[in-house]
Amino acid sequence: MTGSSRTASMRKLVSDYRAKYPGEALDGGVSAGYPAAAIVGEALKKACEAGDLSREGVLTVHRARGAWDGGYGTEMDFSVVDKPATRATYIVKPDKEAVGGAVIYREAAVSDLAGEYTVPVG
Fold it and tell me: What pTM does this model have?
């Protein structure tokens, strides 16, 4: 997804949040929580369509989805259980005028350390 598409997705999230919760603070919990809820919601819908809402059924459709990009950050791939969905991260800097109190300082990238990290499984 392009940077302008991500910006549009986040602007819509901010607009929708402010309409639903006027005067409430919009922080990192909102910008992280909304995509997390969307990911789970999509998996539940697909599991329902498949007729299997068991834990295994939900995990199966979640892992089968492959790449997911809702426009709120980096593309994530949930298909490999022993690897993080993404290794890329943004660098942000505080900005008291910005919604949420921070702005993107550097676009998402994978550091050498993150790229080489082996996730402990078990």
Answer: 0.78
